[in-house]
From TrEMBL:
UniProt keyword list: Oxidoreductase
Keyword Ribonucleoprotein found: no
Pfam family, one: adh_short
Protein name: Short-chain dehydrogenase/reductase SDR
Protein species of origin: Penicillium roqueforti (strain FM164)
A GO term, aspect molecular function: oxidoreductase activity
InterPro entries the record matches: NAD(P)-bd_dom_sf (IPR036291), SDR_fam (IPR002347), Sec_Metab_Biosynth_Oxidored (IPR052228)
Amino acid sequence: MVSLPDVQSSNAHIADTLPAGLVAVFVGATSGIGEAALKEFARSARSPRAYFIGRSQEAAARITAECRQLNPEGEFTFIKADVSLIRNVDKVCRELQNKEKSINILFLSCGTIRSGEDTSEGLHILGAAAYYARTRFIINLLPNLKQATGLRRVVSVLAGGHEGPIDVTDFQGRTMSMLKLRGHVVSMTDMALETLAEQAPEVSFIIDYPGAVKTGIGRESNTFLTWLMNVVLMVIGPLVYIPIRESGERHLFFATSAKYPPRVCLDAAGNSAGVPLSEEVEVASGTDGKVGSGVYTIHWNGEHAGPKVVKLLAGLRAEGMAQKVWQHTVGEFDRIIGSKDV
């Protein structure tokens, strides 16, 4: 486990070990974990430029003011969008690329627990936010991440360590239970990130499980199971919740620490790996079980998901699942948008 003091110590060194003017994009940051991570980034980085995407203009005004108080030298820009729609994702990416040539951090925490509904583009709404929109953001912004110096990192907040089988007859997860759907989506994400890492070995990719954090996502419940889960958490939540500030600190650590280096460090001094490690913290093992291999699935405490997940993912690779997932994903994007680039 990476202790909270080690996390805080690493974050305290962001300003003196990483370049000034880091550019970060936070997708789904007008509440919850995304908001907490954005605020820690504002608190810790030198003259940062942060873009955050969400649906609430009112929340954005409050968050912008708070970030400017935390760091008067930073720039904080809100982009209003419903990113469950792939067309909106593309529009946001075009706006970002008009403003920034390079991006250091892409932080993805958009999501919903609504199920049994489709978006207007024909995607199951839960998967649209948790998988398809996030993957589209990464594909679109990967050239900008590759252009960055000092740090190149993607963090997707989902359920790292809770991988499961992938059902190729129901990639969108329309007929699955919520528990089966979680493992299915997480494994699809692992497969997609490994494919993207082949295209960009100088970028590191993380999928993490944040633990029990009070985020407010339960307001969108539309099934009995998710409603029941919310009731249970109302009772036991105070006993198990990770404080929102700590969650923000840990996620900033995931986004900046050299514990999670890319497969290939292009910087001569290795600075693209992130904030140097203390003696107590070791480089993490990747989804393939190898140390520092560039794609990481981790628990809330920052440690690797373990040998069972490595074995499961190895089995999926042996079945050619990465190629199947990628073919399906690109096929859905082509159906919605066409084969043109952003």
